[in-house]
């Protein structure tokens, strides 16, 4: 904690004068000042503390200030703070080994990147070179990052003003609550979504399709846990047409769903896995592509035409090794699973039962969405002005929510305690009663 309220004012003034923010009209911003954090909490300079149900951008899976990870970064900084990617570096090798230890059998290599977007960018590049094909099929309800191909593979609104890359095709994935397929059961939704995907593949010309790129659990789009059989069905389609299957585990991976990788719950093995966020909880920017043997072999004697100055950056690598070690030693992934089953899932189901504004809650582990509606029968989304009040109501109660469209995503760190979950849900309970239910017609 610095000089208190003066530093908060200074932080905000400097920010407004000079910092250009993501995805925003700059003149309309008034960002929260954050000076420090520990575990599931962050605070400003004056000492006002917030419970973080957002994990920032759903990435602080081990919470803030994990001492072993901080120490590992400090030690690495003192030993070797940076080194070119063409060198061999022990910390980098250990980080790759740690990641692969949690990937399916047959994954042999890791290409490290600076974050999730460039992980997807390079996975797409690998798939195109491996297959000699061009097109990438992904979901409309998705986000894959903000770089050239990744943002056009993205399905949500962020694609549209950035649509400069070619060769991208989108399909609707399963989302029973707002089914595009007139489905009334998960089985129907699954079968019809797979039929739609296969028909699009056939119509686009299977020989032109390099990759199907999907989030294992679409995250920002609403924590759309796929119905049983969907991802396995996608795998079968990919196999039928010689298409590379890339699963984006950037948000869903490393404990978020109560598993190391979300796809483990779905009986599917893909060809490339992209990761970032939870791999080191964002202590140092990092991401990567885990590569299965056949695709890795493509580049044994053929140049891979891609690279980054900071690929395998020592500070990022040290933080990955320490994060994965800490998660293993402390049972963080198992803890996230238990929080979902024992506390968060039942707590949210209780809110859904008592609040008419809750259309649906869905999720697993510490990865949940609460979908708010103005009309529970028509499922009309709660309008943006009311969602803004929901967000403000949570902040007024010292809880940071992740509000997206008409949803509150309840995505605390994997290390969140049962008491912290109860505190967060109590705030949500009050806000739903005061703000959201009052808007139900
Ligand atoms: N993929 C998914 C599923 C994401 O949620 C995100 C970021 O939110 C990305 C990719 C992009 O990651 P980054 O912002 O690190 O580039």
UniProtKB/TrEMBL annotation:
GO terms for cellular component: cytosol. The keyword Cytoplasm does not apply. SUPFAM superfamilies: PLP-dependent transferases. Transmembrane segments: none annotated. Belongs to the class-III pyridoxal-phosphate-dependent aminotransferase family. GO terms for molecular function: pyridoxal phosphate binding; transaminase activity. Gene3D superfamilies: Aspartate Aminotransferase, domain 1, Type I PLP-dependent aspartate aminotransferase-like (Major domain). This is Taurine---2-oxoglutarate transaminase. It comes from the Bacteria. Keywords: Pyridoxal phosphate. PANTHER family: AMINOTRANSFERASE (PTHR43094), AMINOTRANSFERASE CLASS-III (PTHR43094:SF1).
């Amino acid at each position: 904690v610095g000089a208190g309220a003066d530093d908060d004012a200074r932080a905000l003034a400097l920010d407004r004068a000079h910092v250009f923010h993501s995805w925003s009209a700059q003149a309309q911003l008034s960002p929260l000042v954050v000076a420090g954090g520990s575990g599931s909490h962050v605070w400003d300079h004056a000492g006002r503390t917030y419970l973080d149900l957002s994990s920032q951008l759903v990435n602080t899976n081990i919470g803030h200030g994990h001492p072993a990870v901080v120490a590992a970064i400090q030690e690495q900084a003192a030993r070797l703070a940076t080194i070119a990617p063409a060198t061999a570096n022990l910390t980098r090798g250990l980080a790759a080994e740690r990641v692969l230890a949690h990937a399916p059998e047959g994954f042999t290599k890791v290409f490290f990147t600076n974050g999730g977007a460039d992980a997807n960018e390079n996975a797409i590049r690998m798939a195109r070179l491996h297959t000699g094909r061009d097109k990438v099929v992904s979901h409309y309800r998705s986000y894959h990052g903000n770089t050239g191909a990744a943002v056009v593979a993205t399905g949500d609104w962020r694609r549209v003003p950035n649509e400069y890359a070619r060769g991208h095709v989108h399909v609707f994935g399963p989302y029973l609550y707002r089914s595009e397929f007139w489905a009334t059961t998960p089985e129907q939704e699954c079968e019809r979504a797979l039929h739609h995907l296969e028909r699009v593949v056939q119509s686009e010309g299977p020989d032109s399709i390099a990759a199907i790129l999907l989030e294992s659990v679409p995250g920002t789009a609403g924590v759309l846990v796929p119905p049983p059989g969907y991802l396995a069905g996608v795998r079968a389609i990919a196999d039928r047409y010689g298409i590379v299957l890339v699963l984006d585990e950037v948000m869903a991976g490393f404990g978020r769903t109560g598993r190391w990788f979300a796809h483990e719950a779905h009986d599917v093995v893909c060809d490339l896995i992209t990761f970032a966020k939870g791999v080191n909880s964002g202590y140092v920017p990092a991401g990567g592509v885990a590569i299965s043997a056949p695709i890795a072999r493509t580049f044994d004697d053929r140049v891979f035409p891609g690279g980054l100055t900071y690929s395998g950056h020592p500070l990022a690598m040290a933080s990955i090794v320490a994060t994965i070690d800490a998660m293993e030693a402390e049972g963080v992934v198992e803890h996230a699973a238990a929080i979902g089953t024992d506390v968060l899932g039942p707590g949210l189901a209780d809110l859904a039962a008592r609040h008419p504004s809750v259309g649906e809650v869905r999720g697993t582990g510490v990865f949940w969405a609460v979908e708010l509606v103005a009309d529970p029968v028509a499922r009309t989304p709660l309008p943006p002005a009311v969602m803004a009040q929901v967000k403000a109501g949570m902040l007024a109660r010292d809880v940071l929510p992740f509000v997206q469209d008409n949803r509150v995503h309840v995505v605390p760190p994997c290390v969140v305690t049962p008491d912290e979950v109860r505190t967060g849900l109590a705030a949500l309970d009050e806000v739903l009663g005061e703000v959201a239910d009052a808007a139900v017609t």
